Amino acid sequence: MKPEINRDSIATTALLPKSQPPENEIAGTSSLSGAVFNVSTSMVGAGIMSVPATLKVLGIIPGFVMILITAFVVEVTVEFLLRYTNYTGEANTYGGVMAESFGKFGSISLQLCVMITNLGALIIYLIIIGDVLSGSQSDGVLHSGILQECFGFHWWNSRAYSVLFVVIFVMLPLLLLPRVESLCHASAVSILLAVVFVVIISGMAVYAMLEGKTQELRLIPDFGDGFSFFNLFTTIPVLATALACHVTIHPVRAELENQSDMTSAVRISLILSVAIYFAVGFVGYLLFGDSIMADMLVNFDETSNSPGGLVINAVVRLSYAVHLMLVFPVIFYTLRANMDEMIFQQKSLLAHDTTRFVSLTCVLLAFIYFVAIAIPNIWYFFQFMGSTTVSCIAFIFPAAIVLRDVHGISSRKDRVMAIMVVVLAVVTSGIAISTNLYSSIGNST
């Protein structure tokens, strides 16, 4: 028996509930290309640097297959969400769809997961930008940043001051734009920079091949030296985090001139992102082999043996850092909207309240900055985030909506697929968390 829906109590808890007016109040102005750029930008983020490390664990062939499987599951779950969006004319957001299926508990659960995921991702973005500009230290080895390599070590190019400059003069102006569609040009540039990054490291790989300096590629996993089969599952949260785009689907869709184009935009974005991940993963592994770090940018410092020298290494790191600077506002947009919905439920649209809009933006940005400076390495948190909140947002919640089926529109094929997605997400996340905990305890011991 399907639950009765109380139309008056359904919370329109959007991923962008107050910063976006209802769809019938605003004409769509964004094009298909703009939607593709914004969705692709949400995919090609910090995860791109970890793809070569996942190929080191999985091997080239299983790694490529796993990327394709993850992309397929993402496409399926996005289609689930879009099918239930606006079915009754009311639920036009992810939060609204969750509220229709599971009430206020569902919408709040989604918002908490989105806020935790986006907050963690933005902190990681600033940490990576700080690593590029001001260097980092890993296992007692100091990896200098671009500013230190160019100007030496000074107080003004330390992590705290370099990141503060980026936050004030790059991030803040973009974050004060009230509409996500206004970021499509920045998103286009960010995708272009990602392509430039791929082209440069591909050129480095070709040069290394001509010089005979490429590393031996592992086609399948190597189970020697105590490597456990369960370690393979730790790569899945990384790929899921890399390709998950569910939190940007509805805000981008709301501004599309033809909202039926959203499915095509997602598929094009997935193809583009998978191609970039294939290229970066293969080339990075080819250049550095088993010495590849979890953050590949660390391999491009002045002590690396990569072909190209300091100038090309600096261009590689800087292009990716600028890419993250332009991805940052798109992710921040949904975080701010969800935070506003949680705190100011009865207030007017966020975009129409300048004081609240600016205040919330500055408070969130300041918090992200101070955490990124205080905690210079949170990669373990990044792994656990991919196993928990990202898994819920990208896989478990969309599949649960289909299984709940409050409108009676799910086919048997849909329900079977939804069950498979839930089982896959729960099993792989559980194994990944357990393996990471076991490894952490073993290392500390």
Task: State the gist of this model.
One of its GO terms (molecular function) is L-amino acid transmembrane transporter activity. It is a multi-pass membrane protein. This protein has 445 residues and is an all-alpha fold.
Strand order across the largest sheet: 1-2
Tell me, briefly, the overall form: globular
How many E-type strands? Answer: 2
Percent range of helical residues: 55-70%
Helix-strand pattern? HHHHEEHHHHHHHHHHH
| Low-pLDDT ranges | 1-27
Can you characterise this structure?
Helix 1 (about 30-45) packs parallel to helix 10 (about 260-290), helix 4 (about 95-135) packs antiparallel against helix 13 and helix 8 (about 235-245) packs across helix 13 (about 380-385). The longest helix is centred in the N-terminal third of the chain and has 41 residues, at about 95-135. The radius of gyration is 22 Å and the shape is globular. The protein is mainly alpha-helical and about 450 residues long. The chain starts with about 30 loop residues before the first helix and ends with a helix. The model is unreliable at about 1-25 (pLDDT under 50). Helices cover about 65% and strands about 0% of the residues. GO terms for molecular function: L-amino acid transmembrane transporter activity. It is a multi-pass membrane protein. It is found in: Membrane.
Main features:
mainly alpha, 445 residues, disordered N terminus, AA_transpt_TM, 15 helices
